[in-house]
Amino acid sequence: MDKKDIYEHLAKIYLDASSKRKKKSKDYPKVFKNLFFASSAVIAGLSIFIFVLFLNRTSSHNSEIALVIQPDPVKINFNFNPAKKEIFSISLNNLDVIHFKALAFQVKKVNYRNNISLRVEFINAFREKSELYIKDVGYRWQDYRIDLADFKNISDWTRMVNLAFIVEEWNTREKDGIVYLDNIRLLR
To answer: Nearest Cα to 106, choosing from 133, 140, 132, 59?
Structure first.
């Protein structure tokens, strides 16, 4: 072997060794990078799982499936000098409510001294009418939930025409006042 062959041989050995070192040094960051992304994905997945589990535990008691009938607050301003009752009525347009279990809403009165009972009335397409009374409406917002089964005179819930909230003269102490309704909805 002459010098040239020896140099080429050494260069080949050196270059092969140096390229292997470069490959090894490039492989380690890839491994760490992949390990980092895998561990990040596992941590994110566990975090989401725990969050969803926590949400289900905390909100399962408060969750409801509802059809909101009147989302905005409603003011029933009554004055019984000429009138004998004041009505807030919602047209249900032959709504099928057979799969709903309850009517829910919030109510309050303005004058805390006034003693008010509120009549809640459903009417279906066959002119069947059923009513219930909410006694002693408070002056702070109160949530009410009335089972539809409590409306005894309605036999067919497939074509509901009207829902009404009525303040009657004989169910108030004062001759005038204000009642607010909010978040009127049907619950499943």
So the answer is: 140
Record: fold of 67-187: Jelly Rolls (2.60.120)
Ordered by start, the domain boundaries in the chain are: 1-63, 67-187
Specify whether the CB–CB gap between 187 and 114 falls below 8 A.
Answer: no
- Let me know if 118 is exposed, middle or buried by CB neighbors in 10 A (0-12, 13-18, 19+): buried
- Among residues 117, 114, 134, the alpha carbon closest in space to that of 174 is found at 114
Query: b/e string for 106-116 if b means 16 or more Cβ within 10 A?
Result: ebbbeeeebeb
Encode pLDDT of 65-123 as tens digits.
778 877 788 888 887 777 788 889 999 999 999 999 999 999 998 888 888 889 999 99
pTM score, whole prediction: 0.63
